[in-house]
Amino acid sequence: MGIESITLLIVLALLALMALGLPLGITTLTVSLVTAILYFGERAGFFIVAANVSEVLHKYELIAVPFFVFMANVLERSGIAKSLFDSMAIMGGRFRGSVAVQTCIVAVVLAAMSGIMGGEIVMLGLIALPQMLRLGYDRKLSIGIICAAGALATLIPPSVVLIIYGLAAQVSITKLFAASAVPGLILAALYITYILVRVRLSPAMAPIYDIPETGLPFFKRIKYLKGVILPGVLIGAVLGVIYSGVATVTEAAAVGAIGALAVAAARKELTWTMARDAMRQTVLTVGSIIWLVLGAVSLIGIYNRIGGGEFLRGLLTALDVAPIWVIVVMMLIVMVLGTFLEWIAIIFITVPIFAPVVVDLGYDPVWFGVLFAMNIQIYYLSPPFGPACFFLKSVAPKDIQLQEIFAAVLPFIALQAVGLFLVLFIPELALWLPAMLD
Amino acid sequence: DTLNIQTSFNAGDFSTQYLTENWLPKISEMTEGRIEIVLTPNGSVVPARETPEAVAAGVLDGDFTSVNYFSGLEPAYAIMGDLISGYETPEQMLDFCREGGGEAVMQKAADAVTGGEVKVVACGPYSRESLPARVPIRTFEDLKGKKIRSPEGLAAAVFQAAGASPVSIPFSEVFGALEKGIVDAADASAYVNNDATGIHDVAPYPLYPGIHSMPSMQFTVNKEKWEVLSEADRKALRDWWYEAMYAMAAEVAKQDAALAARDDAADDIQVIDWAKEDRDQLRAVAREQWEIFAEKSGLAKEALDANIAYMTKIGLFQE
Amino acid sequence: MKRSLAIYAGLIDRFSVFIGQACSILLFTCIAVSAWEVVMRYGFDRPTVWTIELAMALCASAWVLSVGYVTQRNRHISITMLELLVGPRVWRLFRLFQMLISIGAIFVLLLALWDPAVKALSRVEHSGTAMNSIQPTILKVLLAIGCVLYLLQLLANVIHWAQGTESEVDGGH
Ligand code: NA
Ligand code: NA
C-alpha cells in the first residue's frame, strides 16, 4: 500500500474514532498502535511507540503548563479575577464590547510572558471566560476570543514554536522573534476589529455593563482601577523577571505561581482549602492534557519512517507553478498535517523538506518561519485536532462542549487565514523589523 | 538495498545538507547501486537516546548519532562521546577510532546496551564546538565564577573543577538565557551552526577554536542487515563514512575559520582564541575528571585507557 | 458477584482519587523547586544542577499518576457531537464501546511499555547529565504504572456503567 493511501486511512480512522466519542488521546494512540504493529510487526512497532511516548515526559517546556494552570486557579478562586474584570468593565464604561477588547489586549501581554500556547489558554479560560459569561457576553464570541488570542503565545515572542523552527531550519532565532512581533499584533488587531464590528451588528452579544459606575465620566472612573493593580503588579513582576534575565520563561511561570499565592495573601484570601482545591483542580487539568499529547506524539516516528517525508517531497517536486504558489501549497500541506499530527511532528516532517526549497526559490527563511508560526496558529484552533480547543475544554465550565468550542473558533480561523495571506503577499510586514534591527 | 539511518543532526544543519548533497550519492556509486542511504534528522523516528535499541529492533537500519546521548546507559559513552578538552582536532580522534582501537571499545559498548544486534561500523567527530559567551573569557583564570550552560555530566564536572558554575538549562531555553544574561556562556554547536542560529547576536565573545567539546558520533548498522552484505560492501560503507567525516571536518573547519575571521574583523563580535598554556591548564584539570568518570564502569576505564594511550602516542601527553 | 464487583469499583474510585489528590503535593513541590533555582542562581549566584531534573520528574509523576483520578472524574477530552444525533439510549452503548476501545488501547500500550520499563529497571538507566539521576528509569516505570492505574479505573467505570452507578459524565472517559 502506498503512503498516499496510508495517509488517507490514518486521517479517516482518526476522524471516525473521534466522531464515535473516544477520548482524543485514545484516538491517536489507537491509530498509532495499529499502524505501527501492522507496518513494523510487534517488536519494532511496540518499540517505536514506547520510545516516542516516553520522550513526552522529557519535554521540559510542558512543565510550564501546570504552573500557569495553578496561577490561574489561584487568581480565579481568590476573587482577584472577578475584581480585575469588574474594574475592566467599569473602565470600559458604556463602550460596547470593551471587556472583549481588553481581554484581547491582556492576551497579548500574557503572550509576551509565555512561550507555549497551552499555558495562556488555560489561564484565560479560567480567569476571563467565566467573567465574560458573567458580564453577559455571548458564549461563542467569548470562547473564540480566548482560543484565538490565547494562541498568540507562540507568535508573539518568546515562542517555543519559533525556537524549534529556528533550530530545525538553522535560522536566526533573534530575527524570527523580531519578525513575528508585527504579524502577532496584526492578528490581535484583526481580532479586535472583528469584535467591534460583530458587537455593533448584534449588540446582544456584548451587553453594556449596566451599573451606575459605568455611566460616570472617565476621570471619576479612574479610582475603580484598583482591581487591576494587584494582577498588574503580578504580570509586571513576571515580565520583569523574564526580561531582566533573572529567570527563564519556564522558571518565570513558577515565580508567577508563587506570586499568585502572595497576591491572594495580600488580599487576605489565601486559605488552606483554597490552595488545596486550586492544586487538585490543576492536577485534573494537566492530567487530562498529557494523555492528549502522548497520543499525538506517538504517531510522529511512524509517519516519518513509513515515508511521510518522501511523500511530501514528491508532492512539491511535481508542482509546476509560480514560486509563491509553491509556498501556498506548503502552507496547505501544513494545514492538512495539522488535522492529525502534533506541531513538533509537523516541524520535524516538513521543515527539512520545505526550508531548502524556500531558499532555492529565493525567499527568506525567516519570513517562511513567520508564515509557519502563523499556520500553527490555525492548527491550534482548527478541528478535529485543535489543541487550543482541547486546552480550553479542559478548564471551561462543564456545559461547554468541544463541538461548541469548534463552532466558536471558526470566524477566528478565517481571520488567521487573512493574517497569513497578508504576510504571505506582503513579506515586509514580517521583515521590516528584523531589517531595521540589523 | 536502502538503509534508513537516523542522525542526530538537525534538518537544517550544515552537516545534513553537506552529507545529503555530496556524500549520499557517493555510497551508491561506491557499491554500484547496491546500497542507498536515507538519512533522517534528529528525533524524526525515535528520540536520539533510543537509537541503539531502535537499530537492534530493526526500526532503523542504522544510526549516525552523537554517542553522548547514550552516556546514561553506559558511562563509557561519555568518555567516547566527548572527552572534554581532550583532542585538539577532529582528525586526531577519527584516527583514534579507525586505527587506535576506538571502534573495538564502541562495539563493546554497543553490545553492553543491546543484545549484540548492532554492528559498529565506524566512529569519530567532525567538528570542535565553539563556546559562545556573552562576556569575554580570555584565559583559564577567567573561567572562575562564570555561569556556563553545560548539561552533559563530564563537561559540567570539568567546568566545575576549573572554577566555573555549570548551569543546567534545557536546549530550547539556551538562546533566551544567553540573551538575557542568565548564563555567561553555553555549549552549543560548531561555529558555522551557531552563526546560522544567530547565537553570536546575543553572545558576542565566542571562544574559537573551542576549549571543551568535540562530540563524537557512531555509525552503526543492524547486525542482520550487516551480515547479508558482501565483504566489499561492508568495506565500502566503512570507507565511505570515514572519507565523508574527514571531508566534512575539513569543510567545517574551513567555514568556521572564514566566519570567525569575518566576525573578528567586525566591531560587534570579538572572537577569543585561548593561548596554548591556558588550553594545557584546562586539559590537566579535565584529565582528573576523566579519571573520576572512568571509575564508573569497567568499560569506561577501558575507553579512557585506550584514549590516553593514543593521546600519549600522538604527543598530547608526555609519557 | 455483583456485590464484589461493586466493592471493587468503589475501592478503585477511592484509590484513584486518593492518588490523584496526592499528586497535588508533587506539583506544588515542582513549582517550589523551580522557584528555588531562581533564588539560588540569581540571589546567591549558586546555580544548581539538580532542579531541572527534579522538577521534571515531579511534574511527570503528577501527570502520569493522576490518570486514575482524571478517568474517575471523566475528564478525558472527547467530542460528543453524536450524542445529540443518536439519543441517550444508543449513546449509552457508545459509551461502553468507548471504554472497551480505551481498555484495549491502554492494554496494548502497557504491553509496548513493559519491556522498556523492565529493561530500564534491570540495568538502571541514568540521564547522563551533570546530575546523572535515574530519571529515565523512573519515567519509563511510571508510564507503565500509569497505564495500570488507567486500566483499573476503566474497569471500575465499566462496572459502574453496567450497574447504573456512574458518576456525572463530563464528555469523556
Ligand atoms: Na510568547
Ligand atoms: Na488543527
What is the string of SSEs of chain B from the N terminus onward? Answer: EHEHEHHHEEHEHEHHEHHHH
Q: What's the overall geometry of chain C?
A: elongated
Strand order in space, largest sheet of chain B = 2-1-3-8-4
Provide mean pLDDT of chain C, rounded: 86
Number of helices of chain B: 13
Unreliable sequence segments of chain C: 169-173
Oligomer: heterotrimer
Helix content percent band of chain B: 40-55%
Structural notes for this entry:
The complex is a heterotrimer of chains A (438), B (319) and C (173). Helices cover 77% and strands 0% of the residues of chain A. With 438 residues, chain A is an all-alpha fold. Chain A contains 20 helices and no strands. The longest helix of chain A has 34 residues, at 272-305. In chain A, helix 6 (117-134) runs antiparallel to helix 7, helix 8 (160-169) crosses helix 17 and helix 9 packs across helix 20. Chain A has helices at residues 3-19, 24-56, 64-77, 80-91, 98-111, 117-134, 139-151, 160-169, 173-201, 218-221, 226-243, 249-266, 272-305, 308-317, 323-337, 343-360, 365-381, 387-395, 402-425, 428-437. With 319 residues, chain B is an alpha/beta fold. Chain B has a five-stranded mixed beta sheet with strand order 2-1-3-8-4, sandwiched between helices. A three-stranded parallel beta sheet of chain B has the order 6-5-7. In chain B, strand 1 (2-7), helix 1 and strand 2 (36-40) form a beta-alpha-beta unit. In chain B, helix 4 (90-99) runs antiparallel to helix 11 and helix 5 packs antiparallel against helix 13 (298-313). Chain C has helices at residues 2-44, 51-65, 67-72, 81-123, 135-163. Chain C has one domain (2-168). Chain C is mostly helical and 173 residues long. At the A-C interface, helix 1, helix 2, helix 3, helix 12 and helix 13 of A face helix 1, helix 2, helix 3, helix 4 and helix 5 of C. One sodium ion is lined by residues 338-339, 379, 382, 385-386 of chain A.
How would the blueprint of this fold be written?
The complex is a heterotrimer of chains A (438), B (319) and C (173).
Chain A: H1 3-19, H2 24-56, H3 64-77, H4 80-91, H5 98-111, H6 117-134, H7 139-151, H8 160-169, H9 173-201, H10 218-221, H11 226-243, H12 249-266, H13 272-305, H14 308-317, H15 323-337, H16 343-360, H17 365-381, H18 387-395, H19 402-425, H20 428-437
Chain B: E1 2-7, H1 14-30, E2 36-40, H2 51-57, E3 62-66, H3 76-81, H4 90-99, H5 102-113, E4 118-125, E5 147-149, H6 153-161, E6 165-167, H7 171-180, E7 185-186, H8 191-197, H9 199-202, E8 216-222, H10 223-227, H11 231-265, H12 276-294, H13 298-313
Parallel strand pairs in B: 1-2, 1-3, 5-6, 5-7
Antiparallel strand pairs in B: 3-8, 4-8
Helix pairs in contact in B: 1-11, 4-11, 5-13, 6-12, 12-13
Chain C: H1 2-44, H2 51-65, H3 67-72, H4 81-123, H5 135-163
Helix pairs in contact in C: 1-2, 1-5, 2-5, 4-5
Bound molecules: sodium ion (NA) (2 copies).
One sodium ion binds next to loops of chain A.
